[in-house]
Amino acid sequence: MSLLTIRNLTVRFATSTGSFTAVDGIDVHVDAREVLAIVGESGSGKSVSMLAVMGLLPDTATVTADEMSFDGRDMLKMGAAERRRLIGREITMIFQEPIASLNPSYTAGFQIEEVLRLNAGLSSREAKKRALELFEAVGIPEPERRLKSYPHQMSGGQCQRVMIAMAIATNPRLLIADEPTTALDVTIQKQILDLLMRLQEEQGMGLILITHDMGVVAETADRVVVQYKGRRMEEADVLSLFEAPQHPYTRALLSALPENAVDGRLPTVSDFLIEEMPQ
Q: Does the keyword Cell membrane apply (predicted)?
């Protein structure tokens, strides 16, 4: 049985002139110990799909699905209290904009300690000790000092690492990582990815990785879902996807790798069979 199963997920947003569909009938599933990569351009509905799972979309969004279940539990029928016990403990998420996700009024240490007290049941003393360990694990320099820092006193990369530490603090069963290495240098990117993969292996954790980096996909993913304009274009195991992509949009993404540049120009989606794709 899959850890997370989503069938026919649709997300519509109300606007002043009507509505638009951001996600159109997406199917997603991920197993324990599996890394699922979701790839596609900005605006393809990758993040919106996962925010719908987390229940973090605004009131202007209407979410429907034939099924949304976690470990056999029907998330569509969960009450608010039961869903709160699930989200933030068993399912956690790393967001794209860490500075916007952190509260500017509290120190980084207070915010991660609060997660540990509320969701892991640690005492204040235990939470402080664990917060320091997590900061060290995700490569935050001078971790003791940074526990006392406010978000505006930290770089974007440091704030991102704080968010990663918060997301893994409760040893979740499913981690959704939305561009988790954005704004980090190459060395720290590898450290973070190695950390996530080690946790995924040790804890039997499922990992959904939203990324634009096909190199990261090749190195980490077991399976790949390709999205375009809110729809799923292709799904395959990572080896099959790279060796024999079936959809023109997938071929376009793979051809946009730097090593494929010809005379300084990379192929674009318009170079492929766009007539086969939804408009």
A: yes
Residues found in the chain: 279
Report pTM. 0.88
Rounded mean pLDDT of the chain?
Answer: 87
Encoding tokens for residue 221?
A: 């993913």
- What is the reported pLDDT for 275? 46
How many other C-beta atoms lie within 10 A of the C-beta of residue 221?
25
Q: What is the pLDDT of residue 261?
A: 58
